[in-house]
Design a protein that fits this description.
The complex is a heterodimer. Chain A is an all-alpha fold. Chain A has eight helices and no strands. Chain B is an all-alpha fold. Chain B is globular, with a radius of gyration of 20 Å. Classes of the chains: A mainly alpha, B mainly alpha.
Chain lengths: ~180, ~190
Amino acid sequence: MTSLLSAISLCFIPGIITVIIFHGLWKRVHVYDSFIEGAKTGIATAVEILPFIIAIFIGIEAMVSSGAMEYLENIIGPVFEKLGIPRELTSLILLRPVSGSGSLALVERMVTTYGADSFLGNVASVMAGTCETVFYVIAVYFGATAVKKIRHSLLAGLVGYGVGVMASVWIYRLME
Amino acid sequence: MMNYIWAGMLLSGIAVAAYRGVLGSFSEGLMTSCTEGVYFVIGLAGIMAVWSGLMNIAKDSGLIDAFARLVRPMIRFLFPKERNRETIAMMLMSFSANIFGAGNSATVFALKSMVMLDEENGHSPVASDAMCMFMAANMSMIQIVPVTIVKIRSDAGSSDPGSIILPSIIVGIVSMIASIAVCKIYERKSCK
């Protein structure tokens, strides 16, 4: 099952490229010129989002390297415990919405410490696999637009995140 | 909103660093992270150029049009007002790249979608319903094989690294429903 799904995932990118190129040739599109034309706009978008990426990177780094994140964990940990979320997961829950690579490193540490097949290891894996880097996504996506008022997008993201966190804990609670 | 969050992150970071006397390593971290940000975008720029180029071929050949016509009924629930075929195709590409775990490509399609939605929104400073919905759906999009996580687990000696796949999909769907519901509620509110 896993290997089949992995194979499909593996074929995703090459498959799309093949279809696009063949269809282009079939319709007599100048594929090379068309590619260059499009690639130009891609570079332009990358340059446009650069300031937003830098802003969010330093914001996150400020929280992590100063140790403010740890303080926040100590404050929030007990609240999470009341909701039935083990304390060990607090730092992951706080880190995941802001940093993809940081939270993966944390999951790596957690599965080695608690064991990959333990309750905590499983929950941490599911959490990191399903929950998104909400703040980062919002900053970067809207960075590509003229939007200043983001309306309910942050709330929608955070509600989805919270539900995802609770669901990952409960799905393993119920299986035990 | 973003103003306060960002200012809060930086200022609380500085305050805590000063209190703990780690201002030196704090500044160093800050400078390293902005360089990392640039490296990240440089990496992204390449992928972005490739996908933008390929999508341009697909646009010229009419493939995007055909694809969008095919999937429009599926996407109508989320984006009832969306008419632009190219935007629909781009958003769907972003969703599928997410599902298949092509993270960076998904970011690229998402950014392109946002640029297009921004144009349809007349570059307004207020986010449109479609933007919020797209973001909500994309943020909680499921991934059929969370490759990195499975790898981490097998490295850590898990007896069944793939055992998290089904729970992940279930959790992903539940959280996606929640996000979409929030958007739908707000859309209704703003209609009145």
